[in-house]
Amino acid sequence: MGCGSSTAKPPRIVVVTDASQTDSKLSDDDILTVVRGVQFRAGELSYNGRSRPMTSEGLAVMKKALDLLDLTECPGKWMSLSWDNIQLSAATTIVMPSTIHQGDTASCGAVTVLEAMAYFRPETYAKLVLAVWTHAMVADVNGRPWGDTADIKPDLLAATPPTTIEGASLADCMVSTAMIAELKDQDAVRDLLGQDDYLGQSCYGPNGSAVEMAKGVTYAWDVKKMMVQLLGCKSVDRDMSYWMFSDGPIDKMVKHTASGAIERGEVVCIALITNWLWRKAMAGEDVEKADGFAFCEHWVRVRSVVDLGGGLLEVKVFSFGEVQVASSVSRAGFGRLLFESLFGVLE
């Protein structure tokens, strides 16, 4: 947190694209390793056994994002990470955003925003990775420092990612952890509580830490802020359905899926769900009548919600490094595990 003056200076831009980064000639071995594994045919891009819809225009935008990362040498401020690993990880995310995995950390709020960014605005994603790596700063959608003091603290720069973070997600672990740490640093109360020194360590599993959980948790207003200021959503509508079934958010998801708005990126939907109930829904169980307590615990990005008729839905979400599918979940069952829905208009 910083103190202002009577004559405020405009924040300096921290992301500057060098001409050599846009020469249209990919040359770095780590970038080429990813590119050579990509296949594109009939409007579909495939990579490492995964696929996603892709247009020729989308390929051109992806190429520009990879151009930004096409640097053989790029000194950074993160002590336990290397540029080669960050570059390879970020390139993988640009090509196939669903590979982002949060491991056992509490970074799902930031990760869902990053996945949407890589999917719909890969150049913004690449610039954010470069800002965090080279300048130790989180940059907003305009390339300016995010917050009063957007510098990343030394303890985080020296931290080692948890072992549950796979190599393909190292860049995303770095950036999402920095996003959450800076988000908490912008909040005076969280600053006083010491929650601004989030290190992105495990909060689940055998090495889980309740302290890391408290520091890493992001609420709806936090995710909304990241959607607007980092992803670049023009507006974000927040629909709540705590403890009471509501058709409204589900109807919106069905509508935006049917119109193609979610797939085109006109609308970004990020939802807060009960993850253990969602796993039962994927397994085909009747989650409407399942025993147990539903509680809000996990952010996901909604990829599609299709009305199958007869009160049944097919729901696809990005979560934990993959696109997960509940192929036949009741509307009431999905409503039971759904707590918050953020609909961002991305233009």
Helix- and strand-based class?
alpha+beta
Whole-number radius of gyration?
Answer: 20 Å
Biggest sheet layout: 6 strands, antiparallel
SSE topology string: HEEEHHHHHHHHHEHHEHEEEHE
Strand content: 15-25%
Distance between the termini: 31 Å
Poorly predicted runs are 1-11
Helix fraction by DSSP (H/I, runs of at least 4): 25-40%
Number of domains: 2
CA-based shape: globular
Task: Provide the spatial order of strands within the biggest beta sheet.
Answer: 4-9-5-6-7-8
- How many strand segments? 9
Overall pLDDT:
89
How many distinct helices? 14
Account of the protein in words:
With 347 residues, the protein is of the alpha+beta class. It folds into two domains: 29-229, no CATH class; 233-345, Cathepsin B, Chain A (Alpha-Beta Complex), CATH 3.90.70. 39% of the residues lie in helices and 18% in strands. It has helices spanning 29-35, 56-69, 83-95, 108-120, 122-135, 154-157, 170-185, 188-192, 210-216, 220-231, 247-258, 261-264, 275-282, 331-337; strands at 38-41, 44-47, 50-53, 235-240, 267-273, 298-309, 312-319, 322-330, 338-345. The protein has a six-stranded antiparallel sheet, with helices on both faces. A three-stranded antiparallel sheet has the order 1-2-3, with no helix packed on it. α2 (56-69) packs antiparallel against α3 (83-95) and α4 (108-120) packs across α5 (122-135). The protein is globular. The relative contact order is 0.12.
